[in-house]
Amino acid sequence: MAGQLLIHLDRLTDKGTLFEGTVRPGDLENLADELASPDGELRYRVTARLDGARRRVVSCIIEGFVFLTCQSTNDPFRHEVAIDDRLVLVESEEGLPPFEEEGDREDFVVAKEPVDVLGLVEEAVILSLPMVPRKPGLEPAPEAGDGKPGKPSPFAALAGLKRPGTK
């Protein structure tokens, strides 16, 4: 993977820097290991800027699709990708906020410069993939004790003992 698309943390401004493009999933080395096929398409729009508090903020929007292998049928299937992440880049672990103060809208990441844009895209896609890929439309795998027919609930016998009108 060429490193032409770099975010230089010391060059960020309020106006920001925009990186846009399309990448084939199989061309992202670490992502390729997760795929059923190298084909697909990922369109990315990454903006890096300083926010009002002078924090280094990176907005990562990624849309497209990859091909995964269904763990139930072993068949390849198309998996849609839609990511809208906001990262705050800090220089060291001391710059990370306490866990209780982190919000749901942004993630804090320790970043050394420069930051590879395609590396950010690759990592965001990997983190968005399902742990157990399954083709859309398949019935979920039954879980033990899920209360479905085939295994009676342990509380069913207690319900029969209760008489109407008693507490």
Summarize the structure.
With 167 residues, the protein is mainly beta. It has helices at residues 29-32, 117-128, 156-161, and strands at residues 6-7, 17-23, 37-50, 56-69, 76-90, 107-110, 115-116.
Notes on the protein architecture:
By secondary structure, the chain is mainly beta. It has one domain (6-141). 13% of the residues lie in helices and 35% in strands. The protein has 3 helices and 7 strands; from the N terminus they run E-E-H-E-E-E-E-E-H-H. The protein has helices spanning 29-32, 117-128, 156-161, and strands at residues 6-7, 17-23, 37-50, 56-69, 76-90, 107-110, 115-116. The strands form 2 sheets. It has a 5-stranded mixed beta sheet with strand order 2-3-4-5-6, with helices on one face. A two-stranded antiparallel ribbon has the order 1-7. The longest helix is centred in the last third of the chain and has 12 residues, at 117-128.
Could you outline the blueprint of secondary structure elements for this entry?
Elements: E1 6-7, E2 17-23, H1 29-32, E3 37-50, E4 56-69, E5 76-90, E6 107-110, E7 115-116, H2 117-128, H3 156-161
Name a few traits of the molecule.
two-stranded antiparallel ribbon; 3 helices
Strand order of the largest sheet: 2-3-4-5-6
| Content of β-strand | 25-35%
Number of helices: 3
Helix content: 10-25%
| Overall number of strands | 7
User: How would the global form be characterised?
Assistant: flat
The radius of gyration is: 23 Å
Q: Tell me the domain tally.
A: 1
Give the overall pLDDT as a whole number. Answer: 86
Class based on secondary structure composition and strand pairing = mainly beta
Oligomer: single chain
Order of helices and strands: EEHEEEEEHH
The largest pleated sheet is described as:
5 strands, mixed
Distance between the termini: 70 Å
- Low-confidence parts, pLDDT < 50 over ≥5 residues? none
